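Render this sequence as a predicted structure.
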Amino acid sequence: MTIRGRKDLLGSPTNLYDVVLGDHVAILQGCGLGGGSLINANVALDTDPRVFQDKEWPRELQEDMVIMNEIDRTHVCDMLKPTVYPEDAQVLHKMEAMKIAADHIAKDIEDITGDDIFKRTPLFINFRSVRKNHVGIPQPACVGCGNCCGGCNTGAKNTLNMNYLPDAKAHGAEIFTQVEVKYIVRDEENSCWIIHYVPHIQESFKMKELIVRADKVILGAGSVGSTNILMQSVVHGGLNISPTIGQKFTTNGDTINFSYNGEKKIRPAGVELKNLKKGKSPGPAISSVIDMRSIPGEPFEDGLVLEDGTPPSSAVTPYRFLVSWLEKGEDTTPGEDDWRERVRHWSGNGWRNTLCFLSMSHDKADGLLVLDEKSGRVMVEYPEVGQEKNFEKVRQIARTGTHGLKGYFIANPYWHGLVSKIRDKEGIMTVHPLGGCSMGASGKTGVVNHAGQVFSGVTKELLPDLYVVDGSIMPRSLGVNPALTISILAERCMRLMAEKYGWQINYNRFTEIDPSSLMVRPGIRFTERMGGYLEFETKVTPCEFLLTVEANNIKRFLNDERHSAKIYGTVTCESLSRSNLTISEGLFQLFSESETRVNTREMIYGMVLSSIEGKSYYFDGVKVVHKDSAFEIGVGDTTTMSVHIHEGSDSSGKVIASGELKIKISDFRKQLKTMEVFNARTKLERLKWHVRFGKFFAGVLWEIYGPLSTTKNIFNPDAVAREKRPLDLGEAQPVATQLFTQDDYELLLTRYEGGDKGPLLLVHGVGVSSSIFAIDTIQMNFIEYLVERKYDVWNLDWRASINFDSCQRQWTCDDAGKYDFPLAVDHILRTTGKADVQVLVHCAGGIAFFISLLQGTLQGKIRSIVSSQTGPCLSASKFNSFKSAVRIPSFFHGVGIERMTAFNEGSEDWIDKVFFGGVADVTTAFKEHCNNPVCHRITFIYHLLWNHRNLNTITHDTLHEHFGYVNVTVLRHFAKIMNKGRVVTFQGEDIYLPEEAKSGNSKKKEDMKRQMRYMDIPMMFCSGQDNHCWSPETSRRSLELCRRANPDQHYERLVIPNYAHLDLFMGQNCHEEIFPLFMPFLDKYAYSDDIVEMS
């Protein structure tokens, strides 16, 4: 129960019972999907026709009464199915008591009998079980538990969620619960309404206002709710409505009295289903009525109804205590059976013979609903309501009925009993509040017209497409349960709307709701607040979001590969809107496998932001969950989000702002409190899903951040080969030429003739092949990039290529320099007729190529060189320096290992098991934090060759396609080069760069000058800033060496941030971030000065 007063709000705003406490009037109303129908007593009595003859009703409605009663009433009855308590059902004690009371009341009225005023009330209740009702909802029969006013737990009660709402759903309506509409604003520029609302799904965070736009708005929030919305709309939205707003409020003459401890057993309260016994049910909350609205000679204003009331089982204790002990009733039959009455009272059984009289009559409708400025709540002012004569008449009639039952009469405690005495006021509690947005002929006399359309100010003009359709539009009391009358007037308003807008409504058949929508599964939700800054083009602005993530099916959420859920809430950023931006079409993905980053999970937040100004933006937020250091536990990743804001309603729009948001520790604690499993049938089921979600969340974090997490084996040599994408080469189709060196090694030159720039020779490193330049798992590889820019590209597989068995044979860089590159270059020059070639070399291919250059075999044939990661001078990483210093390659050679590979060969050799099955997996896992053993072995052999964030998942998963064997002899050669810090022979001789060996020796200096003349070629030395194989010092030292020797030549250095080694060619964004950096240098030397004939 929620209790609202001027100062206090007790309870949750989503509780079933909503009590509004005023000085003289208290209102009890229902809150939930179905509104007041959830707690009403289902009574379907018609209003006395004479009521509609009152001058308060608009003339148009009075003239439409015949159609309204014939057509609109029929539509209501077709939907709500009113019926009386069946004659063949269990005899109800309270109905028998009501008949006795009616007979006794009729004795004092001339020409009236008890049968004239006693009736079974038509009820919106299903008394026959049906597999599906008319809108497709399964509906059992009423069991007579008496809990109608506590929320029907069997489904027999025809509340709106059993008929009108499913019908709306079947016709495409979207229905939202746990939200409170605050006010509406007219957007004249876009000819629509802006509805401001607040969700009430948790209490840890104070939720901010959201908005939704609508062409037409129909308010149906009841007397208090609709009046509140319109009043708030005047204050916050400047809405011009009638000054009569809030007037003509009526309690509908509601009051309650009791006959306590009569001589007849009643069964006075509802019974829990588990305690209900056949033949002993109390019956529906109301089953019969003493109808005194048609007494001859009396005006309709004196009419009233008394109904038998059964409070729900949840109210048994306070009800029993109230009538038995708190209120001292009046003995209506003093001296008759006093000793039996005392026994029943002191034994506690007096209350079992208690009948509750629920009454409706006519007050003067002089109440006023007012907006309390501080609380923003609507309160009732009706000071003289307790003195109106109708309540005294009801009291006298109820007392007469009590006398017939020989009970103690207890008057309404709120009006004439204990509560009234404590408050020193005669108050009324109504469950049928009416008025506040009453009908009228114009804005001078009412808020809406006969069709529910809202007047503009005091005029007859109407605000466009704004309606009120509920009990608030009644201009006076009805003197009976108002549910049927409100429904009939609502149907009439809809009929008139359909006529106005040209809608077609098929009343001849009902559309059944999709059965799948009835399958309610346990779901999960939580609310999150993050704050930070967004950087726009000209300024930096604070940004905050407060959103709720909700999955309606937690089982599907956990099993779904992307773990998707919906998002709703607000984003606040003054550079985007002066007010909160409302989230719509929000999609959340929890720990989704990243499509662009290796061994990375992502928490993705994608949502459309709608501003009060009518603009839309797309919020693209990602929490990257990836282990970046050995002892990271994930707190930073799960509480930090990178954000991009796009123009328009999707991610294709221009990025106008970027930034980072974080969660405060205090907000994170609140977030944990908002974690809720909903729609669980039992506490045990709720706990089960809490545990399963917790295990999933913790399990993913352990998988990512747990120590030594190296379980996933990517490479399966027996797997079916994947289908590769064709390269986008246009007309430059590959032409391959096989060559053989003098020492009997196979080479392969593949030409991609994209144009007349170049020719450009590409040289890969060891343990790979030419495929690193033609990789198909990225959007555009280097070959495609160069061909598009009109280069004549020659991609070389030299003896190190894993495409040849020769990569496992024992050879050195001296051998490759002497035989491979001269042969390849000469073939290119002979084929193209050019005098020289451009060259791009990578890693070990660069080392071998510089050795070839310094051997003098390529003099005059090389136009320019781009050297990726290596050069004539070399500085290794600490790990590789350590391996070379302790002579790991020589150790392998000594124990008989002549080759190393990136994947498990299935060998049972203990060396392979120790170093590659164990050490490689474990040591590299601490460094690179992925679970691909192929990647681990590559790292163990060469050190980390990429920043994982630069590789997409498919590239990382297919590393075995690009890596293979490397012979130990060439690794021993590299070790000597590392130890020397420059290119040397396999024997360690300094014949390539002698000055570096002995500076001061004149002969060495001359030899050095001669050698450096071979290097008098335009060169670009390139290093990834994060290179862990060869230190970026390599490119710096090589640049300085060349500039000292040849100061007039063009040398330059390029250090690329956020990249490492091979990700310069295998990275997913290379075509945007890397390749363009090479082009100014390549284009500068793209054409040869002359063409020569070569034979």
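Summary. Residues 629-633, 705-716, 905-928, 1089-1095 have pLDDT under 50 and may be disordered. The two ends are 100 Å apart (CA to CA).
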